Amino acid sequence: MIKKLFAAFIGFIIVVSALSQDTKEDIQRKQQELQKEIDDLNKTLGQIKSSKKQSLSQLALVKKKIAARTELINNINRDLRRLDDNIYISQIEINHLRTELDSLKDNYAKSLVFAYKNRSSYDYLNFIFSATTFNDAIKRIAYLRSYKQYRETQVSTIQKTQDVLQGKISTLTSAKVEKNTALADQGKQLTVLQEDKKEQNDVLKDLKGRESDIATQIKQNQRDQQKLKGALQAIINREIAEEKRKETARLKAIEDQKKKDAATAAAANNNAASGTAKTNTPSATPNNNAGTSNTTATTTTKSNRVYNVLESSDESLNNSINFENYRGKLPWPVNSGNIIIPFGKYQVPGTKLWGNSDGITIALPVGSTVKAVADGEVRAVFDIGGPQVVVVRHGKYFTAYSNLTNIKVSTGTQVHAGTVLGNADKGQTGDGEVTFMVENSSGGYMNPESWLRPQ
Q1: Considering the domain boundaries, does residue 418 fall inside one?
Q2: What is the model's pLDDT at position 307?
């Protein structure tokens, strides 16, 4: 009963540990991913540190590195908890095996003493021939044989228990060595984390000392943003006007065809009736009303969903729906980068300066490729006094990619998610930057991060 309770206790501990922990492989894989991220950040930092002035790009990289290293340390702590649990369970199992082994050895020793005391052939024969019946003698012979087998089984059980015990001791020793290695790695990462924080403080201090320069940059960014917003609104207004023109032309063609069909029908009826007036042509009013009703249904509602004029064609409608369906899952416009200016109102770290952005500004190496995030059509390629901009229409949605160079597309180009639009150009600080914006047909700007998949 005690053995069953112990086995149940060990099983419970193992199950709880398995449910509350990541596996060793999961932890190691996560550590490798985080270490690679930190190495990539250090590489990018090395590329932008050539500038004599600290920048928001550098601050964003350092902050991201601190976050990654903190997560790495937390991951090491999870690994230490896993090792502590394994060591605890192994120690309990070893203690139990040692107790069981002592009991087996004690029982075997008693068997040996008993066998020694009854070792003479006389005692053996006397035990058999003292049986009162033949069947009783047979049973006594079987008993002596089973007793011999029992002693042999005791020896085998002791040997197996010793082997299991040795295996558990080896596992415990290995876990302790692994724990010491993890503790050493934890100490190393904590030391480097302090260096990262010092680097962050140095960048913040430098930024604070250059508030006037940064204020000038913010004002210039605001001016560029106003120009970009004005250009985007003009593009949207032009697209809406063009779609309305097409829709008006389409409706006029439908109406003209109806009038032509009505005239043809009236002529046929007149000929058939030999000029009598009893057959009147169908009233144009019901047809016109029906035409208007059908047109309204076509342009404003399909499948119980209301659309605007920018979704009048099937292609535009599909692009809108696809764009919406991938909200939160759209690919990033760049392979790697760090947001240095978020969407909405923001404060420049280390300063008392505030700014406002209708998109996100991503820092990345100069020359990095910039790609479309969804299927659509390029509706404009222009510059706003220097930085070049590509605007892609996705049905009733628009995405804008600003501060590009080496543009690969032109107005009218059909693009897909991943189509290269151009390369990242230098920003005001000399580092690579790209501004990405998402806008709807009413001119409302949306947070791009809510549309993009998590990095």
Answers
A1: yes
A2: 64
- How high is the pLDDT of residue 435? 93
Tokens of 223: 């001016």
For 53, list phi and psi in degrees, rounded to 5.
Answer: -100, 140
Retrieve residue 408's tokens: 């690969």
Question: What are the tens digits of pLDDT across the range 76-98?
Answer: 898 888 888 888 998 898 888 88
Q: Which of 54-63, 94-103, 366-375 has the highest mean pLDDT?
A: 366-375
- Same-domain pairing of 203 and 346: no
Q: How far apart are CA 218 and CA 204, in angstroms?
A: 17
Q: Which residues pair with 388 in a beta bridge?
A: 383, 404
User: Which residues lie below 8 Å from residue 390, measured CB to CB, with a gap of 6+?
Assistant: 378, 380, 381, 400, 401, 404, 407, 409, 421, 422
Q: Please compute the mean of the pLDDT values over residues 3-10 and round it to a whole number.
A: 52
Q: Clarify whether residues 202 and 337 are in a common domain.
A: no
Cα of first residue to Cα of last residue in the chain, in angstroms, is 54
Average pLDDT over residues 344-367: 84
Written as one letter, the residue type at 177 is V
pLDDT of 412 strictly over 80: yes
- Domain range for 441 is 327-450
- Count of domains forming the chain: 2
Q: b/e map of 68-93 (b: 16 or more CB within 10 Å)?
A: bbbbbbebbebbbebbebbbebbeeb
Calculate the average pLDDT of the chain: 79
Task: Describe the chain by its helix, strand, coil percentages, rounded to 5.
Answer: 65, 15, 20
> Would you list the DSSP string of 73-88?
HHHHHHHHHHHHHHHH
Phi and psi, residue 437, nearest 5°: -130, 150
- Determine the average pLDDT of the residues in 201-222: 78
CA distance 324 to 1: 62
Q: Which of 232, 249, 247 is nearest to 379 (CA)?
A: 232
Establish if 249 belongs to a structural domain. Answer: no
CA 405 to chain centre: 30
pLDDT tops 90 at residue 445? yes
Q: Are 320 and 394 in contact (CB under 8 A)?
A: yes
Which DSSP symbol is given to 23?
-
